Amino acid sequence: MTAASQGNFPWLSVIVLLPAVGALLMPLLPKEESINRNLPRNLALSFLASDFLLMLFAFGRFFNTHIGGLQLQERINWLPLIGLEWSLATDGISLPLVLLSGLITLLSAAASWKVTSKTRLYFALLLVQASAQALVFLSQDFLLFFLAWELELVPVYLLIAIWGGNRRLYAATKFILYTALASLLILISGLALALSGNDFTLNLTELAQRSPSGSFGIFCYLGFLIGFGVKLPIFPLHTWLPDAHGEANAPVSMLLAGVLLKMGGYALLRFNVQMLPEAHQQLAPALVVIGIVNIIYGALNAFAQDNVKRRIACSSVSHMGFVLLGIGAIDALGISGAMLQMISHGLIAAAMFFITGSFYERTNTLSIPNMGGLAKVLPITFAFFLTSSLASLALPGMSGFVSEITVFLGITSQDSFTSVFRAITIFLAAIGLVLTPVYLLSMCRRVFFGPRIPALAVVNDMNPRELTIGLTLILPTLVIGFWPRIIIDLYEASTNALSERIISHSLIAITHSIA
Question: Residue 162 has what pLDDT?
């Protein structure tokens, strides 16, 4: 789209900055003890809802799904002394994740009904998080991207450390240590790329044109892989995730699973695949192997968890393995499956953590052995939890099935892998598919059936507010399951362009080796 067709209006800048404006207004509200504790939540909901509606309007009006490159570009020379630009743009890879981020953050704020302490700070942090997330997905300057990547760590740390469970400080500290140390590798790899050419640049498009090869390209690739892999997360860099989920409240867990993990997958596509296609071609089999380890290890680890949230967190490790598998498949179908899996898992995992929070508010426990017979007293909650579990285990007709089958097809259609490698990959990934329904359905059985715990005999079921949030998360998984083109059309042109870029660089490398 041209600037004229956009009306010269900085849509992306407004999308990024609008929640931050709401955060700045939060301290101006009266203290919650003196006036109304609902004011901070209502202000946050107003800004987040406006931001999401703005996304829908701007992307629906000005985004062309047939263009694989960047659109809605905005570029301002912000701090020329250090080469920092306010450079924003979107394409098919970032746009669905921006929408997912806006939706999950809005629902997370709506789900924070029971937060009654330090409400101004709590909702201000959610608003800052919303701006930082959007900036991560829309940044086209490496330094701007890195600043946004670091900024979003702070609200998550505070949200866990202040409003988390009994071991919240341990979980929050572990989260910040893992992610902050990983950020050093991201910074080193990004600056190495910026300094690799004749001219220093931080612009992502210009960095992608360099496409370094050889040992330098592999060095940068591995730095990005480890740095972004912590957030994905990949084994063995995943151990912060069960602790963070176990201690965070349900709305923050919705953000962790629905948005933060997707930042890792997005960054792998944007940096490892787009900027370093030759290195990606060489290391793609290793990425597939790591994906298989994630799938099986995450599933086996889920069996050992007696806490509902920790079991769901381990299942997220397993499901994000399919994202690695799709990215490692190289071809357009595999990358499409990775994108669809990120979107699908974002909705499903957010739904599962929200519903878990819903029955935790009623039972005051997440210990699976201490629950039972809840289906009789919480039939609607049970129906929602079972539906989200079926979506998570990839039941046909739901988004999880479409995304995972697309990843499988991407692996099988990749001619650069040997037939033996493809067969072993499919076999091992299928083991994960078999394990998933076992640990999810066994959890449903133990929590909702069996002997009823006397202390839980009388509790109220989901209220209209909770029903609305649950339906907003569950219905898209059904729509995507039956009509996946509604999402695929958003990113297909971009994933096809990305796949063609890898193939073209592979052919160039072969030509050079022959010459």
Answer: 93
Which H or E run contains 76? strand 71-79
Residue 316 lies in a domain: yes
Q: Is residue 162 part of a domain?
A: yes
The strand pairing partners of 203, in sequence order, are: 141
In a domain, 155, yes or no: yes
363 within some domain: yes
Q: How far apart are the first and last CA of the chain?
A: 41
With left for phi above 0 and alpha for psi between -120 and 50, is residue 367 left, alpha or beta? beta
pLDDT tens track for 239-287? 999 999 989 999 999 999 999 999 999 999 999 999 999 999 899 999 9
Supply 65's token pair. Answer: 């799904």
Question: Exposed, middle or buried: residue 493 (CB in 10 Å: 0-12, 13-18, 19+)?
Answer: middle
Q: Residue 279: which of 323, 237, 330 has the closest Cα? A: 330
Amino acid at 21: V
β-strand partners of 76 = 86
Confirm if 72 and 12 have CB atoms less than 8 A apart.
yes
Which of 175, 429, 446, 179 has its CA nearest to residue 313? Answer: 175
Domain that holds residue 299: 11-514
Containing H/E element for 273?
Answer: none
Give dist(CA 495, CA 428) in Å, integer: 26
Q: In the structure encoding, which two tokens stand for residue 36, read together?
A: 């109304």
Pull the structure tokens for residue 110: 């709506």
Domain count across the chain: 1
Which among 153, 151, 23, 145 has a CA at the least distance from the CA of 94?
A: 145
Single-letter amino acid, residue 498: L
| Alpha-carbon separation of residue 117 from 31, 90, 121, 235, 457 (angstroms) | 11, 37, 9, 36, 29
| Stated pTM of the model | 0.93
Give the Cα separation of 467 and 381 in Å (integer): 9
Q: DSSP readout, 446-457?
A: HHHSSSPPGGGS
